[in-house]
Structure formats: structure tokens, C-alpha cells
Amino acid sequence: MPIFTPWTLLILLAFGLSLWAQFRVQGTFSQFSRYRTSSGMTGAEAARRLLDANGLYHIPVEPVAGRLTDHYDPIHKVVRLSEPVYAGNSISAVSVACHEVGHAIQHKVQYPMLVARHHIFPLVNLTAGAAPLLLLAGFFFNLTGLLLLGIIFFSFAVLFQVITLPVEFNASARAKKLMVQMGIIDDREVGGASRVLGAAALTYVAATLMAVLQLLEYIWIFNQSDER
């Protein structure tokens, strides 16, 4: 495998963007963790209110260890919130909590991109582990067949990343709208919520950009080897 390709600089820039996005989401979350919401609700209370308002009474809200480990589990149908979000009553806490409820609402209404992500996940789960091994073997032994198979397997992971983007943006849009409608935040706090959710979304954008560029680099290497 060539050490440098026409894509190398772009991939390095995308990697830098990814690191910056991670720092930014941590910093933005910390910044708005200092601002208590006017409603005084905790993340757990805000999540419960939105779930109940959307007829999702059966979905529990549970604390989970860690920081920014919040997620909606579509298999067990539970919203899990990290401890600072679960018990916190800051703009950051309720924004993250309501974002995860946004995923639960997507699940209920069968949001098309979420459905697509669920369908492709088993395939990604099967191919993700094999893709790096196939790519390495293809590069090392100069076997174009293995390299092509590795590229195909890796492309499923990239597709999953691409599909994830609209899922995350839609969940954030639902969260911001519902937080105001339900009185969880007021108009003065919308800007802070937007910054928290926007910083989180940027991490997905950076990860997707890097994955797409890596895929293009692998395709370029495959074309170069095929021409020799």
C-alpha cells in the first residue's frame, strides 16, 4: 500500500476535524452544563415528559455509567442517560436527553432513515471485522480480489455512517422543537441547546467525511493496482 496517495492530505484534514469535533462537543457540553434551565427539569424528567407526550409510556429512562454515553436502545426500547445528563438540570443535560427521546420517536413513527439503518446494521456487524483484514491482506500480498472484497465490506460501514447523519440531525430537530413546545426550555435557551446539539452532530459529520475519504482512497489504490 502506498504511504502517500492523492487522498492522504484530505484524510489527515478530516482526522484533524474529527479530533477538533470531539474537543468541541466536550467543551460545549461543559459550558452549557453551568446554565440551569428555566424549567428546572432534569434530563430524566425532560425525557419522561417527552416520552409520555408522544405515547411512549412503556419506554423507561435509565441511568448509565460514564460521560456522554447517552443512547436510545431500539432492541430493548429504553432511553439510557449518562449520570450527568440523567440527574442534571442544565441546558446541556436536557438537550442530550431530549435528543435521545428523538430517536425513540423516530422508532415509533418508523422514520425511513432509521429503518434503513436498522436493516443494514446486521450486515455491517458481519462485515466490519473482516474488512480491515481483507484490505491488509490485499495490500500486502497484492491480491486484487481480496482488496476488492475488503472495499465492498468497508463500503457497508461507510453507508451506515452516511445513513446515520440524517438520523442524528432529525433527532436533534425533533428535540429542539419539542423542548420549546413542552416548556422544558424557553426561547432564550434555544441558542444554547442548538450549540450543544450542533457540536454533537459535528462529530458524526467528521466521522462520515473521514470514512468516505478512506473508501475513495481504497478505490484509488485498487484502480492503480488493477492497471499494473
Question: Which features does this protein show?
Answer:
single chain; 228 residues; mainly alpha; three-stranded mixed beta sheet
Order of helices and strands: HHEEEHHHHHH
What general outline do the C-alpha atoms trace? elongated
Tally of individual domains: 1
Q: Which runs of at least 5 residues are low in confidence (pLDDT < 50)?
A: none
- Main beta-sheet strand count, sense and barrel state: 3 strands, mixed
Strand content: 5-15%
Structural class label: mainly alpha
- Helical content stands at over 70%
Q: Please state the average pLDDT score.
A: 92
Number of helices: 8
**How many DSSP-defined strands?**
3
Radius of gyration: 20 Å
Strand numbers in spatial order across the main sheet: 1-3-2
Write the layout of secondary structure elements.
Blueprint: H1 8-32, H2 43-53, E1 61-64, E2 71-73, E3 78-82, H3 83-87, H4 91-109, H5 112-127, H6 130-141, H7 144-181, H8 190-227
Parallel strand pairs: 1-3
Antiparallel strand pairs: 2-3
Helix pairs in contact: 1-8, 2-4, 4-7, 4-8, 5-7, 6-7, 7-8
Describe what you observe in this structure.
By secondary structure, this protein is mainly alpha-helical. The protein has one domain (8-227). It has eight helices and three strands, in the order H-H-E-E-E-H-H-H-H-H-H. It has helices at residues 8-32, 43-53, 83-87, 91-109, 112-127, 130-141, 144-181, 190-227; strands at residues 61-64, 71-73, 78-82. Strands 1-3-2 form a three-stranded mixed sheet. Strand 2 and strand 3 (78-82) form a beta hairpin. Helix 1 (8-32) runs antiparallel to helix 8 (190-227), helix 4 crosses helix 7 and helix 7 runs antiparallel to helix 8. The longest helix is centred in the C-terminal third of the chain and has 38 residues, at 144-181. The protein starts with 7 loop residues before the first helix and ends with a helix. The mean pLDDT is 92.
